[in-house]
Amino acid sequence: MSKRIGTDGSLLTSLPWTLAALAFSVLPHLPFLPMWATATFVLCCAWRWQIERKRWRLPPAWSRIVLAFVCFVSVYLSYDGAVSGVGPGSALLAVMAALKLLETKKRRDQFVLLFISIFLIMSSLLREQFLWSFPYLIAGVILTMTAWLHMSESRRTSIGGSLTSALRIAGYAAPLMIAMWIFFPRIATPFWAVPIDTSAATSGLSDRMSPGDISSLSQSDKVAFRVSFDDEIPPPHKRYWRGYILHTFNGRTWTGSEPSIDRTAKSEVSYDGSPVSYQVTMEPTQQHSVFALDIPEDWDLRQTNMGPQHQLARIHPIDQRITYRVTSYPDSRLNVNLGSFWQERYTSLPKDSNQETFALAIQMREAAGSDEVFINQVLQKFNTEEFFYTLEPPVLGADPVDRFLFDSRRGFCEHYASAFAVLMRAAGIPSRVVLGYQGGEINPMGRYMIVRQADAHAWNEVWLPKRGWYRIDPTAAVAPERIEEGRSSAMFDGIGASWGLNAPSEFLYQLTLTWDVINTKWNEWVLAYGPDNQSQFMEWLGMENPDWRKMMLTLIAILIALIGIISLLLVIRYRPPPKDDAARLYAKFTNATGVSPSTGETPSAYCKRVRETLSSNAPNEITELYLQARYGPEGNDEIPRLRTAITEFAREARV
Amino acid sequence: MSYLQTTTDFFSTVALRRALQKRALGWARKRQGSDQLITRLISRRIYILPTAVGFVFGIMVFTMLLGSMNYNNNLSFLLTFMLAGIGFVAMHQCQRNLVGLEIAFAGVDPTFAGQVAVYKIAISNHSKNRRGHLQIYVGSISSHIDDLLPGESRVFHLEVPTTKRGRIQLTRFGIRTLFPFELFRAWAWLHMDLTGLVYPKPAAEVPLPPATQTAHGHRQHDARGEEDFAGLRRFHEGDSPRHVAWKAYARTGDMLSKLFSGADTSSQWFDFDQVSVADVEQRLAILTRWIVDADRAQVDYGLRLTGEEYGPAHGESHRHKCLEALALHENTAPYIIHK
Q1: Contact status of B155 with chain A (Cβ, < 8 Å)
Q2: Residues 6+ apart with CB under 8 A from A240
Q3: How is residue B213 annotated by DSSP?
Q4: With a CB-CB cutoff of 8 Å, which residues 259-298 of chain B face chain A?
Q5: Catalytic positions of A, please?
Q6: Distance between CA B263 and CA B213 in Å, rounded?
Q7: Buried b or exposed e, range A536-547, using 16+ CB within 10 angstroms
Q8: Chain B residues in contact with A176 (beta carbon < 8 A)
Q9: Is some CB atom of chain A closer than 8 A to the CB atom of B78?
Q10: Distance of alpha carbon A165 from alpha carbon B92, whole angstroms
Q11: In the beta sheet, which residues pair with residue B160?
């Protein structure tokens, strides 16, 4: 009859803290974990704790294997077969922690749990980085380290003692951390590309446009990028941020080409007028486009080039928040001379679609007499006839441009841009559609501008001989408020509902703006600290031509200095208290006798032993004085007398 | 073939490790010299290496660094560097955790062969800081793990198993710590000559002690006086069946022996030459048993061993003198614990 042997309860003191550390690390993953994974984690934690408290047995090995198999298959299925990336990775970690808990028997098994806890914190940072992520990670590490210490120390130590030790160690580690963070060389190219399925990664611009297919445009408050201008903020009609240039139309959808490098692009620009300099902090888009005002002349972002249509693009996608500086010339002219090949390309239309529009364009162009007049008349048409700006237009069937121009007459920027470009092309004027952002909200506190996803916009560029490409925004003809005023104050027909007509109170508005200032500074100074910012910072610190070698050497020097200081502090902290005078004098006496005191020998016994070899009466006197000084009432004159006696004795012994 | 290869490799690794350890120990011994019985640890004699957990931690931090570099993620850089910083600090604190400790030999109680000799090592913390996770060890033998509060002293027990009688000598022991995170192990070797005494193992099966003479030369019926009943004590092997309190046994189930106090204050003599066994070790074992039993019975006894006479007397120190004489009989070279 074998007795069921349960756990021995040896983890009772340490397990709750390990569980706390794990739970704290899982916290930011909760919105992203599949329900079953969260449930498994919570249940396993609770179960394991009950096992420890009630001295139950751990579940048998076969059941753990089955559970592990089920969990791993579930992760595989939950993420459609993806096993890399932050999503499945953190789900795997959470499940692994849960399974490991069920076989945690010994104290040291908890090491694995604490390692998992750290990896969970790390993967939450890969997913998203907010302002609170910083205090969160510090708190997470300190909690994990406290649990770690508590696991490793004797039962006499309270959790408060472990926390104090962890805080002290973290305090010593902080300068090392900061030095390494500043000086560790950042590299521009990633080693490998693993998709970060950040649900928080904002949906960037689409690189295509089919206006008839969308029946409503969601208004996302998410930030696309923030801009701070060196001088004045340009007026709204100059705040067009070019993204994708769409040059091909198939009757329904506008498409562009993949971003590419065009070494001659800059030579096609005649930079004119006064420059505007500004700094952009861009949120990750997983796309290549880098936003700038027309037309960028100088930029400091690495591996970023000007494409054939004079827009900027980085070679690898923007997968992290980045900061860059640009100088643009808003009054520049583009492609004053456009080759006939390109003229033809930018006027091509599919032959068999949107025939009505085609006919209208021919007719209007003939009536107008010149291209300039024609363009103005088209804009006039949008402005004076019954065209409406709405974010919830009807879906259009075949020949969407015809249907829009002649039937529905309701749409947002994409509809107008598309119709305008088709009209231009039909009349033989080279034109294209530009997708990008327009406008932005000015934060008066931070003297910068926030451009949100809701500021995404589509407009046109037409080419005229001698003038080159220039921007025309047909939406401005329909709804000038859309262009001239900030989004937050504009109220358009039919879109009130989607914006929530309850305008936020002034106080709340101020609060939001203040919060955004703090966030922006944090983003600029900390989160966007990459190779470029680092070089600048190093130069500011006085390093000439900073490269990774110099930074590494500086880092090593600083680390050595810091570690020296830390070990000095530790020496001071662990220093024994100074010996009292009596003990020091007595040590001098024992040295002088030539008889070494043995362990546990009382001064009197030692004295007796000394007297066996020495006939003098001095040892008796000295011992008496020493005991008086050491253990007698305080404030007597034994110490000076002891000193005299011992000095006397030592001198005689030497002779 | 490949299997053979692996096993050879394995053994040579073990051998290599042993050889290295031996070299390191020898080097440390030469470098440090022998220690006083009270020794304060200074920093230059403390050694430190990462533990297995420390290696895993290092690999984890390195992996995290690669990940941070790949994603250029500044907060995960921060996390990585915080852990790296904690690793650095842990290393220094681990070493400091030993520096300044006062290690004193606090004696070893004599024991019987086959039992453990308990070496008592007192460690004192004179600083104002707690010292965590301390342990005394020699080879694979280690004490319990404990910490020391500021100003505290504690005795750590090193339980060395013994096999044979005589002196045993511990020439070296270590003190180690894994504080704070078990990432590093710091240790110091102390070279003190700590000699302990191992009594012979008492024999299990013993003949009755020979009938011996009283101090006056009269023969006695038995080892103990039979004149006056003096009380009962628990039965020991070797007690005469005639003295067992059978009535009490029938009543309670406890085997008890009757004790008598002889009016002639007789005492018993145990003589090495009169033990009727040929083997010397066996003889010593029997004598040990007799002495232990006699001591328990609190009667006077004496020991004759190769011309020396001890007693007759009783008490702790007499017992020790007799057993020490037996332990060291033709066996003065100490047994050195090489671990």
Answers
A1: no
A2: A293, A294, A434, A436, A437, A438, A457, A459, A471, A473
A3: B
A4: none
A5: 413, 457, 473
A6: 15
A7: eebeeeeeeebe
A8: 81, 84-85, 88-89
A9: yes
A10: 14
A11: B117
Q: Which residues contact B149 (CB under 8 A, 6 or more apart)?
A: B125, B130
Confidence of residue B156 (pLDDT cuts 50, 70, 90): very high
pLDDT per position as a tens digit, A39-58:
999 999 999 998 888 888 88
Q: What residues of A are in contact with residue B59 (Cβ under 8 Å)?
A: none
Q: Which of B64, B49, B184, B160 is nearest to B110 (CA)?
A: B160
Instruction: Report the interhelical angle of A110-127 vs B74-96 (nearest 10°).
Output: 150
* pLDDT higher than 90, residue B194: no
Distance CA A440, CA A453 (A): 10
Q: What is the pLDDT of residue B206?
A: 72
* Burial (CB count within 10 angstroms: exposed 0-12, middle 13-18, buried 19+), residue B176: buried
CB contact under 8 A, B179 and A177: no
- Please state the three-class secondary structure of A469-527 as a single string: EEEECHHHHHCHHHHHCCCCCCCCCCCHHHHCCCCCCHHHHHHHHHHHHHHHHHHHHHH
Residue with tokens 């000076």: A640
Do residue B76 and residue A165 have CB atoms under 8 angstroms apart? no
Quote ipTM for the complex. Answer: 0.75
Q: Which residue has the tokens 């031509």?
A: A545
Task: Specify which of A219-223, A516-520, A635-639 reaches the highest per-range mean pLDDT.
Answer: A516-520
Predicted confidence (pLDDT) at residue B240 exceeds the cutoff of 70: no
Distance CA A438, CA A423 (A): 23
**Nearest beta carbon to residue A181 from set B64, B78, B83:** B78
- Measure CA A386 to chain center: 47
